[in-house]
Amino acid sequence: MTDKPAVMICGHGSRDDAAIEEFNSLAVHLRKRLPDHDVESGFLEFAKPIIRTGLDKLKERGARKIVCLPGMLFAAGHVKNDLPSEINNFGAENPDIEMVFGRELAIDSKLLGAARDRVEEALNEAGDHIERKDTLLMVVGRGTNDSDANSNVSKVARMLWEGMGFGWAEVSFSGVAYPLVNEGLERAMKLGYKRIVVFPYFMFTGILVRRIYTWADEAAEANPDVEIVKASYLNDHEQLIDCFVDRLDEALEGTNNMNCLLCKYREQIIGYEHDHGAAQVGHHHHVVGAGTDGHGAADHGVHHGHHHHGHGHHHHDHDD
Known about the structure:
By secondary structure, this protein is of the alpha/beta class.
């Protein structure tokens, strides 16, 4: 037992075995990176161990303080409602254990670095016979009923587009939100780019990621004149693991980081490296004061606009 706070890594959960394996592999990486902390991981739904099991194990091993880290990219219903509810219930039953809830991974310079690497890897493999300016980047998000979470996919796309010099970028979703990947690709084809890179902004594989790649294959078959390049999802990229460690540090320090984290003057944001550390001087100083997604999984939620009843407050396309 260590006097350092225990860490509970909270995954979404999946009916897909490969997704669970990848999440568990991430937990192994984090244990190696946090040798002084007692680390457990668990899932919100579909898979075992459930989060409660992990919390109970940490309690049995004498944890006095538990930091719960959401293993999720964006804050939609799960991060905003379901996880806090689980953690609050456990905390209420165990008043002698201090519970701390970390924030989601969110949009982060390290995750953008990981995303850039995945896209670069795919482009290197595809070859440089087509220039970036003739290439469209299609960033694919999970798709949720939370427009705030969905809008983050657009922000990721914009930053990769500017930072990597693509001719254009589009956003689509694997489910729930509009447009879906097949619709997004159909529209993107009309723009006349010679190459389209399909990049799933996901942590792990699963039904939704495989669905994205299937849609990409179908678009390639229907449009033989356009080269479709499939980029990998984030998986266990070193910078993704770095981001989890940052979230632990933030939770322990009590910092509440705002979007200054993505300020190009403070972090080396892709494409703006030369601005990093530059003096922040107002551009308008001369006019100041001058006047005025395994087994048994179903394809839920592929039609946008349909809410899925029967799941309580989970509107899912969350099988992966």
